[in-house]
Amino acid sequence: MSKFFYGIEDLFVNHLFAPYDFFRFTHSWWGANTINWMFSIIGFIAMVYWMKQLKIFNDNNEEDKSISSHSYL
After folding, report:
1. One-character DSSP codes across 19-64
2. Which residues cross the membrane (predicted)?
3. Which of 8, 33, 68, 70 is deepest in the core (most CB within 10 A)?
4. What's the CA gap between 56 and 61, in Å, rounded?
5. How many domains does the chain have?
6. Does pLDDT of 73 surpass 70?
């Protein structure tokens, strides 16, 4: 069973995370954090899209804003 877990370790450490080693050993802070900046930009774009959709539904008055909107309240 231990060979199974060593195989998983080998897969992630030597293959899937290998591109991150390139970024880790760069001498530039900006270069080392490229992936983090990409995730931050994607997250920001998704948040702006989500807020835009919420505004559309709010402007159409589609949300039930009554105090007893749920049966358990």
Report:
1. HHHHHHT-S-HHHHTHHHHHHHHHHHHHHHHHHHHHHHHHHTT-S-
2. 29-50
3. 33
4. 9
5. 1
6. no
Q: Which of 43, 40, 61, 62 is nearest to 51 (CA)?
A: 43
Range of the domain at 7: 1-59
Residue 64 lies in a domain: no
For residues 35 and 46, the answer to whether their CB atoms sit within 8 Å is no
Proportion of the chain above pLDDT 70, given as a percent = 86
The answer to the question of residue 71 being in a domain is: no
Tell me the C-alpha distance between 18 and 16, whole Å: 6
Which amino acid, one-letter code, is at 39? F
- Identify whether 67 is part of a domain: no
